[in-house]
Amino acid sequence: MPEITIYTTATCPYCRRAKDLLRRKNLEFTEISVDGDPEGRMRMMERADGRMTVPQIFLDDLHIGGCDDLYELDHGGKFDLLLADMERQAT
């Protein structure tokens, strides 16, 4: 399974929605809070091609995007296919 990383802030409703979707799918993820952490936010922005809003979601080094991007992938069934494909490639 790819490593899922999500950059968040404590008060972000989109962060909560994205984490809820991941939890509903029983996926483990690493949450990196960028609250009051300008260096952490800069690292996030570097990984996310300059995007500065949260959440920013990654599967290994693949940038998924934000909450809306994640839900769009999931709605079409593409998120599960992407996870399965990444898992197959890792084995």
Task: Report on this structure.
It is a single chain. The chain is α+β, with helices and mostly antiparallel strands and 91 residues long. It is 48% helix and 19% strand. The chain has one domain: 3-Layer(aba) Sandwich (Glutaredoxin), CATH 3.40.30.10. It has helices spanning 13-24, 38-47, 67-75, 78-90; strands at residues 4-8, 30-33, 56-59, 62-65. It has a 4-stranded mixed beta sheet with strand order 2-1-3-4. Helix 1 (13-24) links the parallel strand 1 (4-8) and strand 2 (30-33). Helix 1 packs parallel to helix 3 (67-75). The radius of gyration is 13 Å and the shape is globular.
Features:
Glutaredoxin, alpha+beta, 91 residues, four-stranded mixed β-sheet
In a nutshell, what does this entry contain?
The protein has helices at residues 13-24, 38-47, 67-75, 78-90, and strands at 4-8, 30-33, 56-59, 62-65.
In DSSP terms (H or I, runs of 4 or more residues), the helix count works out at: 4
CATH class: Alpha Beta
Going by CATH, the homologous superfamily would be Glutaredoxin
CATH topology: the name is Glutaredoxin
Which parts are unreliable, with pLDDT below 50 for 5 consecutive residues or more?
Answer: none
Question: What Rg do the Cα atoms give?
Answer: 13 Å
Separation, N- and C-terminal Cα atoms: 9 Å
Q: Tell me, what's the shape?
A: globular
